Amino acid sequence: METVSTVLVITLALTLIAVLVSRTGSGNSEPVQLPEQARQLAADPARRSEAVEWCRRETGASKVDALLAVELFVASVLPREVKEIAAEPGGKIKAIKLLRDQTGISLLAAKMAVEKHIENKVS
Description:
With 123 residues, the protein is mostly helical. It has one domain. The chain is 75% helix and 0% strand. The chain starts with a helix and ends with a helix. Residues 24-29 have low confidence and may be disordered.
């Protein structure tokens, strides 16, 4: 039963990622830029929802775009431990999980941040 639940959660998460990725690929290719006030709020985990709302008000972004912008800001400075794990062969998934555990951000934002880090290390 636990395996079925795990598969279902993973399937739903991947579906959400696919929807968000396809949404960001069409039309609006520029990510939302967080205003300074939203950055200050986003730095405090207890105030991230306020940062999302501030970003929506100031930029006119949708809730999904504002949430992703806040989460990408939170993930923009990867913890040292996440960087070390991401550098290991086959460590990408473990690094994504650790980043999510440490920051509480979405799977999509954690995946994007870790992949960007890996890409920049290879380039």
